């Protein structure tokens, strides 16, 4: 992507170098959340079997929530003087994980795979919080709030995978 449209300024009181580093961290989170949003919708369309309707209906609010997160991150990138990259090419070229492998499949298989997706997204969000701590308190706070929602979404998924004694079946 061309950087010719990158602003020569950032948020007042913030150093340009800190903003550039924060933008890079936020761009990775943007890519991850755009990918997650698409993956959630893919699962929504392709889940079958027992408990289909409960899982099908559980996923749409997660899609909406993650979509809101992407908008918030993209707007923060722009606020800091960056250019949010949300194209399909940006998602594919910047992501550091494998594509979601399941097509039409049973509820439990999709939820086990989705739990692993959330493991990655949530762990990376936590790492981003650590990086943002010294760069930008506003971005750190924003990503922290998002992580709380993402962890709740994962809890909803895990409730379907958890046995009565607290083990996850995967």
TrEMBL record:
SUPFAM superfamilies to which the protein is assigned, alphabetical: Ferritin-like (SSF47240)
GO molecular function annotations of the record: ferric iron binding; oxidoreductase activity, acting on metal ions
Gene3D superfamilies assigned to the protein according to its UniProt record, in alphabetical order: 1.20.1260.10
Ferritin/DPS domain: residues covered: 24-163
Any Pfam family matching the protein: Ferritin
Family statement: Belongs to the Dps family.
The protein's name in its UniProt record: DNA starvation/stationary phase protection protein
Native source organism of the sequence: Alteromonas confluentis
């Amino acid at each position: 992507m061309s950087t010719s449209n990158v602003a020569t300024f950032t948020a007042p009181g913030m150093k340009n170098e800190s903003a550039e580093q924060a933008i890079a961290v936020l761009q990775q989170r943007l890519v991850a959340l755009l990918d997650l949003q698409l993956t959630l919708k893919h699962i929504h369309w392709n889940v079958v079997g027992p408990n289909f309707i409960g899982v099908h209906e559980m996923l749409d609010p997660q899609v909406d929530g993650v979509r809101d997160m992407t908008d918030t991150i993209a707007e923060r990138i722009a606020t800091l003087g960056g250019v949010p990259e949300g194209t399909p090419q940006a998602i594919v070229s910047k992501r550091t994980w494998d594509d979601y492998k399941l097509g039409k499949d049973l509820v439990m298989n999709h939820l086990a795979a989705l739990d692993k997706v959330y493991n990655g997204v949530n762990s990376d969000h936590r790492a981003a919080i650590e990086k943002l701590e010294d760069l930008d308190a506003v971005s750190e706070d924003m990503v922290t709030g998002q992580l709380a929602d993402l962890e709740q979404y994962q809890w909803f998924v895990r409730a379907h995978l958890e046995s009565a004694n607290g083990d996850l079946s995967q």
